[in-house]
Each structure stands twice: as C-alpha cells, then as structure tokens.
Design a protein that fits this description.
Helix 6 packs across helix 7 and helix 10 packs parallel to helix 11. The protein folds into two domains: 62 residues, 2-Layer Sandwich (Alpha-Beta Plaits), CATH 3.30.70; 251 residues, Aldolase class I (TIM Barrel). The chain is α/β, with parallel strands linked by helices. It contains eleven helices and 14 strands. It binds phosphoenolpyruvate and manganese (II) ion (MN).
Amino acid sequence: MLIVMEPNATQADIDTVMERVAALGYTARALPGAQRTAVAVTGNDGAVQADAFVCLKGVKSAVRVSAPYKLVSREVRAEDTVIDFGNGVTVGGGSFNVMAGPCSVESREQIIETAKVVADAGATFLRGGAYKPRTSPYAFQGLKKEGLELLAEAREVTGLKVITEVKDTESLPLVAEYADVLQIGARNMQNYSLLEAVGRQDRPVMLKRGMSATIKELLMAAEYIVNAGNTQVMLCERGIRTFETMTRNTFDIGAIHMLKQLTHLPVVADPSHGIGIWHGVPALARAATVVGVDALIIEVHPRPSEALSDGPQSLTPKNFRALMGQLNQLRTLQ
Ligand code: PEP
Ligand code: MN
C-alpha cells in the first residue's frame, strides 16, 4: 500500500502515519517527492486496510500497489530516481551516460590507455572487471585487488567514475572501497545474500539481468536491494538466453521500454554482451539509445585480439569514437 500525504502535511503528520504502520506490524518507508511525501507500506502478506490511515491528519489517500515489486515500482514513485555521482555526473532523470572499458582489467598499460581513450571520446564511467565470474575455472579470473588498484589509478588520471563487478559477499567490502558503482553480474542476479549485502551499504549498484530471467524477476531482485536500504540502483538489460545461437545472447530491446514504464530506477543497456559480436555492438547501442536508456555500458579494448576476456565483442578505440559521435546525434530522438 502507498499512503499519499497532502502537499502541506507536516513532519509530525508523517511520523504519526509511520508509527501507525509500525504498530500494525508492517514496515513503513517515507518517500519524499517533489510535490509531496508518500509512505510505502511493506511486509504485509495480504491486503492492508486503507481505513486505518485515511482518517489520519495530513493523509490524502491510501492506494493499493498492484505490482509485486513495490519500492522499485513507478506506482510507488512516479519520478525517476536520479543517482548523483558529483562533478556534474548524474544517472537517471533524463541524463545520458556511457560507461566504457575492457571486460577485464589486464595490466596498468591496458587500463590507463583505455581509460584515456574512452574519457576523450566522452564516456563518464570506466568499466573493467577485477573479479571475473568465468564459465570455466581455467579461464582468466581477473587481477582481483591489483585490478581494483589499477582502476583507482585510472580514475585519478582521467576523472572517470569506476564501475566494477562484485562477485560475492566476501569481497564486497574491498570492492566497495574502490568502486563508484558495484556491478552485480547476470550470474548473480538471484544471489539473494549478495543482493541484501549490497542493499545494506551505500555504494550505487548496477544489477544485470540474469541469463534466463524475466523482467519481473529482475525487478523483484532489485526490490531486495532497495528493501535492504539502498535506493541507488540501476538495472541493466544485457541479453537473455534463447534458442538463437547466431548471437551470444538475444538482446531484449522491448525490455528496455517495459522497464522504463514499470520502474523509476535508471535503465542501462549492455549491447556488448547483448550480441557478443563487435560489429553488431554499434547498431544495438544506437537502438537502445533511441528506445530511451539512461546509460550504455560498452566493452572497449585497445587491442581486442589480445584481450584476456570478451575480445570478440570489444570495440577498438576507433570504432568506439565513431559510435560516440552517432550517439550524441541520436539522443535528440529519445
Ligand atoms: C561483464 O560485464 O563483463 C559480465 C561478465 O557481464 P554479465 O554478467 O552480463 O555476463
Ligand atoms: Mn565481458
């Protein structure tokens, strides 16, 4: 249930509502908005009776939230969530950001060179995995702590914000020390201990869609993070597994549209994993931009043929620069 307060409701009115919710055994969360505050009620199994609240001072209405995901739903919050990274960088609410860099951090030379290239082309975030969840235990697993240190060095040199994957709860405190955004990978979308753990800390999170997850399951996974206390969450469409084998994944452009309707959280698209083939990445990036994503995350490597992971889907600096020029024009079509 969502209890909508009058625009002129006082803090004392809001506190009274919160206390009434708690007294009934539910959880209350105040959601301040531009015009008025609302109080979200969760923790109930069945329907909550509106009568208990509508007679309280300062309450305008009490409405049932029909979606199973509550806190991330547009029903509960109509305005976009905007994540503010400082220095004029915001994600959500009409801004457009490009996150770019290699799949994995491989060496100082590689990450600094790539960071300079993508910053120069207009990216605002540097991506790069230090802890890599690989399908094979024999594949490159990432530079781990050294990789995080190199990302921090690249941030110093370029001013880019850093997004990197957190693979498990054990490494979370360390990764959170270095990252501006914690990426939860597709393989971990329903790792509920990890979702709750990133929800209990305050670094922004980008949650990637699981390989075979529905849009609803993605939203329910995001609900775990927000319910644990962290409202700075973005969702990422990165393609899903279908019967198609010609592309690495099937990029779900319709999901981007649906997510923009269903949730106030920023929506990111990953065309690199979405198709898995470098020459298809610009087309998907352009499509996602027109459909209305808040940000793109794109793999770029100075020498894709030498990459230790995902070389075949990585753009060269030259191709990335060309794409950035096109994206700037397309943004006006959103
Ligand atoms: C990645 O971003 O390099 C990655 C491993 O992505 P995903 O979790 O979407 O497979
Ligand atoms: Mn990758």
